[in-house]
Amino acid sequence: MLDDKHGRTFGFSEQPGAVCPAHAPKDHPKIPPARIGVLIANLGTPDNYDYWSMRRYLGEFLSDKRVIDYPSWKWQPLLQLIILTKRPFSSGAAYKSIWNEDKGESPLMTITKDQTAAIAAEMQQSFGDRVVVDFCMRYGNPSTKSKVQEMIDKGCQKILFFPLYPHYAGATSATANDQFFRALMEQPWQPAARTVAPYFDEPAYIDALAGSVERAYAAAEEKPELLVVSYHGMPQRYLMQGDPYHCQCQKTTRLLKERLGWDDSQIATTFQSVFGPEEWLRPYTVEEVARLAREEGKKRIAVIAPAFSADCIETLEEINEEIRESFEHAGGEQFTYIPCLNDEASHVAVLSDVIRNNLKGWIG
């Protein structure tokens, strides 16, 4: 590695195959063979569920202006003095209930590693060693900055950045892209860069979702009366400001309904994970499932969360525990949670095809 005058390291490294450019002086740094990087990004995860790990993670997440856009003078005292004093305990307990103790990491980390390995195998088969595949997290570790640096050190002169969110939202796709571009700003020799657009209406993605629904219904003791399609929520204000997330979610539900050959009485769209005093996108999942049981007499429902590419705290704890309890306390009897697509072969195929399409013009 070389250091510039500011002490920063940059991408001429002792990589296998690194050579001095033709006609360059003998003391010129060796440069690794040119490659293309595919950097997959997910939201993030705390390093552990103890108080300080949770506080660091929540502090980074809730300080992001894309997530909470209140003025700093108003928000930071509340965050630092009240929220981050109490919330790490409750969030830590929630993470502890789903933690992968065998591997010492959250399920999101485990699944993201498995997805990355499966996609890397697909890219190896298609392009050999010319494409490097890795993952990063917007919040927590491994950081976007560290993984961009690693890719540049490996000779990646072009990087395809893939926020692993089917739907675009400022608080997910946009902030992941922001962090990617911040990392590029620190590079003396910037790679060419592309970002991947949302894939919420890709036919293969809809097919994969439909397949997971069909398998879950076939395995259920009794067929659910209604499929609740629960998406992560956002303040209603963001929709009014032009964020397309709500519309993209509604389109996914419609395409899924059409693919399954259902009518409107068999499927419903809801939104979860409400935070703060503002009005968020409605109906709220936790309230709607209780209403369905109490007012409409629904005894059997299934819940799927298409906005998440991997099971995480919002699905494994919020849906499969909190929202399940809300339904059952209101009189519901059979609650079926349909897992995210995770590293299923059909999902890996979808993601790999999205990557191949976005690599066109860069590699044959």
Short description:
With 364 residues, the chain is an alpha/beta fold.
Polypeptide structure, described:
- The chain is of the alpha/beta class and 364 residues long.
- Among the domains are: 1-32, no CATH class; 203-338, 3-Layer(aba) Sandwich (Rossmann fold), CATH 3.40.50.
- Helices cover 46% and strands 16% of the residues.
- It contains eleven helices and ten strands.
- The chain has helices spanning 51-62, 72-98, 107-127, 144-153, 170-185, 203-219, 236-240, 245-260, 285-295, 313-329, 345-358, and strands spanning 2-3, 9-10, 35-45, 131-140, 156-163, 192-195, 226-232, 267-272, 300-304, 334-338.
- Strands 4-3-5-6 form a four-stranded parallel sheet, sandwiched between helices. The protein has a four-stranded parallel sheet with strand order 8-7-9-10, sandwiched between helices.
- Strand 9, helix 10 and strand 10 (334-338) form a beta-alpha-beta unit.
- Helix 3 packs across helix 11.
- The longest helix has 27 residues, at 72-98.
- The radius of gyration is 22 Å and the shape is globular.
- Residues 1-11 have low confidence and may be disordered.
